[in-house]
Amino acid sequence: MKRPPWAVLALALVLVGGSLTVVSRPSPEGPRYITDDQGRAIILHGFNTAGSTKSDPDAMPWIEEQDVENEYERMGTNFVRFLLQWSALEPEPGQYDEKYLDAVAERVSWYAERDYHVLLDMHQDLWGQGITEAGRVGNGAPEWATHTDGLTVEEQEQWELVYLEPGTMRSFDHFWNTTGEHSELMSHYVRAWRHVADRFSGEPAVIGYDLMNEPWGGTLQGPEFERGPLAELYRRSITAIRTVDNDSWIFVEPQAVGVNWGLPSALPHLDDPREGKARIVYAPHIYPLPMDLGKAYGRGEHGGGDDGRIGGSESSRVWIDRSISLWRRNVLVTADRLEAPIVLGEFGLDTSSPGAMEYVERMLALTDEIGAGRAYWSNDLDGWGPWLGRADGEEGEGAKPGPLAEVMNRPYPRAIAGEPLAVHYDEPAKTLTVSFAEKNDGSVTGPTEIYVPEREFPEGGIISSSDPEGSWAAEWDAARRVWKVESAPYLQEHELVVSPTN
Ligand code: 9MR
């Protein structure tokens, strides 16, 4: 593969960025967690659903209700980052398509019935379909909100490069009002969010709103963009959403370029005017630069990727690991500044590339370690997702699981009845350890819930607690494959261990 010129620039940025990053310091309060309506800390584990939304005439993902059922059966997930399209929501300025929202609500109900948490993500790539006449690239913004001023947009083999096309840049510059000509666009976006929040505020399965997918600043980049118009969009959206929805969590992303590779974000602290403690979530993505350049996570000299070399004789895995370390450090710094819990909104790759499943395991372990939730990109039937395709295309038969389905199907605490201290899954031993502290403030009303897969835990496996015998109780819900655990409330700390039957 020929390396695109901006990738070379980017590589240089990584080197410079690495030396500029703020040294990580432990958070004064430790990691923060999202809580559910029973006051439990929830660990979000699931998929983005779905990329197919972008090109669907009704802007719906490919799934049917049976596919949600299949996902639970195969992987026991509890989270979906569900893609929305502003173009479908507000097809004409100020007019919202309620039928579109009905269709979203129907899908939300499929998840709700299976105890999932749904994050509504206002997705965009390359601004919107209207950046080209053919409409083959770009999704998100409606055509009426797309002003290229006649500047060109050429399609590129590597889709991200289209961000640099003049017409795309101009469309973003108008939205961020860098041009001073279209301040109405941001107002529309904010009102559209308020409309969505108004519609879903009473639906407990909707955990929150991801204000904008992978923001791109056009001609404004880095701190100037993140502290400027991006923060303004977030502040205005948060204020608007809170007029109709006091309880949902509001997810904010950093600028994607650079930060997805591990560089620092300059996103500032955002106030939350809700009654009660702030509910802002930091939701970055990770796509290590070597992977954007076509490198794989394999162990070979070049990571089993293409024949280009990165870093002399080092394998690309070394470079990917460096990106991951950089990402981890910088994400913690930003989350600390935002005083927000972390959810990794996207990570993903071609599941057939060398070392792909080791990369996924690594990201699952890392998110456990930093107390973050995660949504894999994506559940599409495109070689990145958990399904190898529809089984014979027969209705009701569902999709065939591939290697990713195995890796994602692992023990995890769906909900923790207290303040999580550590979550650790030992892959070779197939043993999950969850430790947490009592809250002592009466805010937690439900039990701890731990999901375990069928294969190594046919009847739930063996569960033990550090609480003295007789002071705690575990109940096995065989249908959902979930342990429900009541711990001894008079103890300050608890450790639960679930291990395979033999
Ligand atoms: O995987 C998606 C690819 O098929 C599309 O061509 C591209 C442009 O819409 O988007 C890809 O998905 C991206 C997602 O929308 C945002 N984060 C990065 C994802 C992978 O590149």
From TrEMBL:
Keywords: Glycosidase, Hydrolase. The keyword Methyltransferase does not apply. It comes from the Bacteria. Pfam families: Cellulase (PF00150), Glyco_hydro_5_C (PF18564). The keyword Phosphoprotein does not apply. Gene3D superfamilies: Glycosidases, Golgi alpha-mannosidase II. InterPro entries: GH (IPR017853), GH5_C (IPR041036), Glyco_hydro_5 (IPR001547), Glyco_hydro_b (IPR013780), Glycosphingolipid_Hydrolases (IPR052066). Residues 37-380 form the Glycoside hydrolase family domain. Belongs to the glycosyl hydrolase 5 (cellulase A) family. PANTHER family: ENDOGLYCOCERAMIDASE (PTHR31308:SF3), PTHR31308. This is Endoglycoceramidase.
